[in-house]
Amino acid sequence: MIRYKKDTDNIATLVLDMGKESKNLITHEMVDAFAPVISHLKKEKNRAALRGIIITSAKRNFLEGGNLDYLYEAQDAAEVFRLTNRFKQLFRDIEHPGVPVVAAINGNALGGGFEMALASHHRIVLNHPKIRIGLPEVNLGLMPGGGSVIRLLWLLGLERAYEILAEGRRYHPEEALREGIIDDLAEDELELIERAKNWLLQRAEGRRIWDQKDGKIPLGTAADIHLTRKIRQMNIRLVKENQLHYPAKHSILNVLTESSKLDFDTALEVDSRYFTELVCSKTAKNKIKAFYFDYNTILSGESRPKGFGKFRPKKVGIIGAGLMGSGIATSCAVEGMEVVLKDVSKVIAETGKKHIEHNLEEMLQRNEISADESKQVLNRVETTEKSKPFEHCDLVIEAVFENANLKQKVTQEAEAFMDEYSFIGSNTLSIPISELAKASQQPENYVGLHFFAPAHRVPLVEIVRGKKTSKETIARAFDFVKAIHKIPIVVADDWGFYAARVQNTFVLESITLLLEGYSPALVENLGLQAGLPKGGLSLADDLGLPIVLRYEEQADTHYGTKYIQHPAVEVLVKMIQELERRGRNVGKGFYEYDESGQRHLWEDLKVHFPNTRKAYDKQEIIERLLFAQVMEAAWCLQEEVIKTTAAANLGSIHGWGFPATKGGVIQYVFDYGKADFMARSKDFQKRFGQRFKVPKFLRDLE
Question: Of 44, 64, 95, 137, which is the active-site residue?
Fold first, then answer.
């Protein structure tokens, strides 16, 4: 697990190698394996036979962190605290051999793996575009547990340390160097080791700034009044942004604040307490379930038809150079694919390329790509007004306006030049794929590829299987979505597919609350407090009230005599037909819009929908908004619109913003407690109607 070798300069190299495993992971076993190595290094130092230490890897990665299976199951706080301190002690031992230590990072160093690197006195990284460095624990509802919160505090100061930890970003090597979390770059593995040795030969001892008598935290501590004001502002901003739904960020800020006034080792104890609390929290369990277990279940190909070889797309055609089309083009080009971007004229297609350039500039500002990479990406995009360049494309995606005739027309134009081995994907929002496929000469090669705006950032794509879509086309579409590093969920060609259908229930329940006499401001605010990214009324305006109503009309058609009209339909019909308020696209809906696009609630809402409810049960309203979504998702699973709970969960989080802290729509049932959920649903059904009836799928779910 750890190979030891020493050269004639008395420099010891520790090579991390987890045997048959494909990559190195920091585990309890690795901590145990380090114990005799640390003991030997101390003996070598005591007999003046050790000049320095290099830590590197025999794997394609350097070291990645965390036994998430253990963290997900862990319930015993005392045991978590004890094991956390074991990891911390290992990293302190690495800092304390009395000689300088260099981490020669030749692959990904993430989470606990990067924590080991931070415990080293110097960090040199192989400058490879696929290597990533960082501490992404916050994305799982956690914080680093090995002391990196305290180390970054001492290295960068409180504000910058918080920004890095709260973002949970994975940095490429050049970006990590700019951020100050690594010290140097090497262009190849030989240079990596040479630079490490040269640095060691110039150092007599290794001592971190926090272990030096006169060491100070950069830019002050929480005892300084100017920093206290900034911390207060950071707290206010944090509460405003996430409505207290993300405790890990609050814990990180608390640890930084408290630890800035403590010595390093006492601060590590504080750090362990906060880490233990997070590990044992429901939020962390839910996020680990969604972003690790459910994510890997989906990517393992559970919904991908079996028996078909891996599809490796190299060239993609895109019809429609608007924001959606250019966003899809950005996602493809960034992953190394050639892109043909077509619109009705070369000028409009070039405008789409400008959108791509803007997307890349944003990525450049976020340090997600380098300037050279940005140029290379842009050079992969060809603009055109003709369909002939599609003859060399592996697939073509149409992303034109939501009009069936237009979509069918551009499909026929593209197919005239495509070969029998390529396929077409339609980025439709609400038109049945089976209807659109009627215009295709090869309907078995026609599939829905529903991206979410902004397409280059939202990591989800719905793959919609039409009545005649072949299994091979579904498999190839699945592989394409994975190739652009997005999450593929396979859904049936049903009304609203999955995401839009379930999202609509949140909108409808919000509108129903308005009809029941609740204040529109209250409805919106409680939507946010429920954990949704925006209130239901503002979402209705953004979608367009006719679209919201259309989905419910499609539900009517779908269920026939079994359909029970949603109470919100009454409001929608009145808003659209009588009041002529159709949503944001016409400048008036539940909100009014000024010339700059800023909105405020329409004052006359209280005239047409009076605020008769002066008292309210906050928790009940929040639960109604969430339960409505859970019920519809369960119906989708029962009707096989979507086939796995993993896809239902991640589809809800990324598709419309169901609170990640609850783990997704189905995990919410277990977070709430299944028996309690069933009892509450029965109460809601009795008081508010059949829309809260629990489907058999959910009753039987274990």
Answer: 137
